[in-house]
Amino acid sequence: MLSTVPAMLPSDSLLHFPAFDGGFTPWDCSELLPAIQSPKPTISTPSSGPVQSTKTVISSSGSDDDPNRSVQPDRMNRTHANAKSCPNDVSNRAVSVVDERKRRRMISNRESARRSRMRKQKHLENLRNQVNRHRVENRELKNRLSYVLYHFQRVRTDNDRLQSEHVLLRQKLSEIRQILVYRQLQHMSSAWPCNTVIPEQTPSLIA
Predict the structure, then answer these.
(1) N or C: the chain end with fewer CB closer than 10 Å?
(2) Side-chain-side CA neighbours of residue 24 (13 Å)
(3) Hey, what long-range contacts does 113-119 have (CB within 8 A, 24 or more apart)?
(4) Do 1 and 36 touch, CB atoms closer than 8 A?
């Protein structure tokens, strides 16, 4: 409520207010009375007479017309909202940090797995190349072994043949020696005429 009072009030009127029913004074019931503003001094100007300034006083009677009271709940609501949103922001940041760590760990694990697969694939490729190279070398060794075995069989056959020929030649040589000895003896016996021994005829040993 807006109320105005005269600027100058007699001092007796302020001191002699009648008591209310029940023994309350006006000062005890100050909440029920409009606020009274103290008078301001008069200002005199050259052009006019003394001017008494009065000011409109806004009394607070507990209604919702007070803008200060309407602003304070809004501030309190915003404060409570901010206070409630702060833990949510903190939790959201913590969750985002955890998610970021998980994502980085996942990327790192993928890179490690990819490098491991590449190393295993390279090692497997090297093993395959070694196997192929050893197969080629083994094939070459088999061919060389077959060649050596073939020549060994030829040499062995030739050796057996030569040994057989050697035996035959020795036998022939022995027979030739016997014939030569017999002829020498026969020649010597014919050279002595007094010898009455008739040599026995021996068959020829040479076919």
Answers:
(1) C
(2) 11
(3) none
(4) no
Looking at residue 98, its pLDDT comes to 86
Please tell me whether residue 2 adopts helix, strand or coil conformation. Answer: strand
Rounded-to-integer distance, Cα 193 and Cα 106, Å:
130
E strands along the chain, which residues? 2-3, 57-58
Taking the model in full, what pTM does it have? 0.36
d(CA 8, CA 38): 9
Would you call 101 exposed, middle or buried from its count of C-beta atoms within 10 A (0-12, 13-18, 19+)?
exposed
How far apart, in whole angstroms, are the C-alpha atoms of residue 107 and residue 100? 10
CB neighbour burial string for 178-195, b if at least 16 within 10 angstroms, e if fewer: eeeeeeeeeeeeeeeeee
Asked if 34 and 42 count as a contact pair (C-beta separation under 8 A), the reply is: no
Distance CA 20, CA 22 (A): 6
Residue 58: other Cβ atoms inside 10 A: 14
Closest C-alpha to 186, from 199, 197, 175 = 199
- Two structure tokens written together for 79: 């404060």
Specify burial of residue 59 (Cβ count, 10 A radius: 0-12, 13-18, 19+): middle
Walking along the chain (207 residues) 10 residues at a time, the average pLDDT comes out as: 45 47 50 48 46 44 48 59 61 82 92 94 95 96 96 95 96 94 86 55 48
